[in-house]
Design a protein that fits this description.
The chain is α/β, with parallel strands linked by helices. The protein has helices at about 10-15, 110-115, 145-150, 155-165, 175-185, 190-205, 215-230, 255-270, 285-295, 310-325, 340-355, 375-390, 405-415, 435-445, and strands spanning about 100-105, 105-110, 245-250, 275, 300, 330, 365-370, 390-395, 420, 430. Among the domains are: about 145-230, SRP54, nucleotide-binding domain (Four Helix Bundle (Hemerythrin (Met), subunit A)); about 245-435, Rossmann fold (3-Layer(aba) Sandwich), CATH 3.40.50. The chain has an 8-stranded mixed beta sheet with strand order 5-4-6-3-7-8-9-10, with helices on both faces. Strands 1-2 form a two-stranded antiparallel sheet. It comes from Microvirga tunisiensis.
């Protein structure tokens, strides 16, 4: 009997001091060939954790000579190019088996048995979300002057219509009604003479009769137009005088500097060369504002530091404008209250200095009036006319007040030309004054005919 050698103890046996049993190698489970010809290989775990760690049993592959006929790769798949099917392995899922394809003359095709399988439909790719197209912005139609005027004067016309036309609703003209009408017209700042004339026109031939509100508006517009027609005069630039000097005066906040900018642009559109003189040396903001307007309209601006002598600056501006052949020179002045004697004396000094250079200058002295001040505008015209010799009026901010009727009272008393009126901030909101349009706008009529 041959001598049997004892089994060599394993690592765990040697470690724990006992002999390890001979490992039992289980029979390999039948293998299923994978679609690609590579069977799954999983090592069998040891039967007991205390046993020796042994190598995994050998596995059989399609290349092994022991592979059975039924486990071998079909001949038609021998040269297949294995590729994943699109849509069956979406991003973020577990890996999937590649499906075999057959190489044919037409290209790669799936096996018939796999092509007929009930495969899940591929998930559609998320639709591309495109930003919503920006809404088409259609430019607002340009508003004509009549539309801007009526909208700007709506507060005045509404106040006047409510107080005047409301008196004649289901009432006959009698002494009491006519007296109330006259009071309403005076309170609307139209002035006593104009109020009396309108009242007489309404009462003429209609005493003790009913009258419609529309008829009252028509009579009101007609009488206002008669008062304003003589003063509605355009500002004419005498091109034989170079420069044509325009002195701008008015109280603080009336809008002198802005009006200068708007007039400059209108003159430039007429083909005239323009120069601006920043004579409001009391406010640094006024100097900067005028410089901005000069850049905007393409007109040079002569300016000095804050506190500089305004009369000396006006003289220098005249010299430079004369040397350059400038058509129009607009001189800004500091806003001053009409009841401040010292400030009004400085304005008189500017006029004297300008006349030393050109006895005919200034060729126009425009008083800028803020319509919101109402009856206070009457004293402004009176005092500025004495100090600077006002030759024409510019009424601004008619869109911000219900006191637009003051222009009628000014025309009635002073008979000064009204050159421009303003109903907004834009350049196009300052336009030459026309009596008929103003009269119909203040009466609340909707047409210019």
């Amino acid at each position: 009997m041959a001598e049997t050698k004892p089994d060599k103890p394993g690592f765990l046996s040697r470690l724990f001091g006992r002999k390890a049993e001979a490992p039992v190698v289980p029979e390999p489970a039948p293998e299923t060939p994978r679609a690609g010809g590579h069977p799954d290989t999983m090592p069998s775990p040891p039967a007991n954790a205390a046993d020796d760690l042994t190598a995994a049993p050998p596995t059989v592959t399609t290349a092994s000579p022991d592979t059975t006929e039924e486990d071998k790769t079909p001949p038609e798949l021998a040269g297949a190019d294995l590729q994943p099917v699109e849509g069956l392995d979406p991003e973020g899922t577990n890996p999937q088996e590649p499906l075999p394809r057959i190489v044919t003359e037409a290209g790669l095709e799936l096996r018939p048995d796999i092509a007929a399988a009930d495969l899940p439909a591929p998930e559609p790719a998320p639709a591309e979300i495109l930003p919503s197209p920006a809404p088409e912005i259609k430019p607002s139609p340009a508003r004509g002057w009549w539309q801007r005027l009526t909208e700007g004067m709506r507060r005045t016309s509404s106040s006047l219509s409510d107080s005047v036309t409301g008196l004649f609703t289901k009432r006959k003209l009698d002494d009491a009604t006519l007296e109330e009408l006259e009071d309403a017209l005076v309170q609307a700042d139209l002035g006593v003479p104009t109020a009396m004339r309108i009242t007489e026109a309404i009462a003429s031939g209609r005493y003790n009769k009913e009258i419609s509100p529309q008829e009252v508006k028509t009579i009101l517009a007609g009488e206002v137009e008669k008062t304003l027609q003589p003063v509605a005069q355009a500002l004419t630039i005498d091109r034989t005088k170079k420069p044509f000097v325009i002195l701008m005066v008015g109280v603080n906040g009336a809008g002198k500097t802005t009006t200068i900018g708007k007039l400059s642009q209108k003159f430039r559109q007429q083909g005239l060369t323009v120069m601006l003189a920043a004579g409001d040396t009391f406010r640094a903001a006024a100097i900067e504002q005028l410089k901005i307007w000069g850049e905007r309209v393409g007109a040079p601006v002569l300016a000095r530091g804050q506190g500089a002598d305004a009369a000396g600056l006006a003289y220098d501006a005249l010299q430079e404008a004369k040397a350059n052949g400038t058509d129009v020179l607009l001189i800004d002045t500091a806003g001053r209250l009409q009841n401040k004697v010292g400030l009004m004396a400085e304005l008189e000094k500017i006029v004297r200095v300008v006349k030393k250079f050109d006895p005919s200058a200034p060729h126009a002295t425009l008083l800028v009036l803020d319509a919101t001040v109402g009856q206070n505008a009457m004293s402004q015209v009176e005092l500025f006319q004495k100090a600077a010799g006002v030759t024409g009026l510019v009424m601004t901010k008619l869109d911000g007040t219900a006191r637009g009727g003051i222009l009628v009272a000014l025309a009635e008393k002073f008979r000064l030309p009204v050159h421009f009126i303003g109903v907004g901030e834009g350049v196009e909101d300052l336009e030459p004054f026309t009596a008929r349009d103003f009269a119909k706008a203040i009466a609340g009529l909707e047409a210019t005919s």
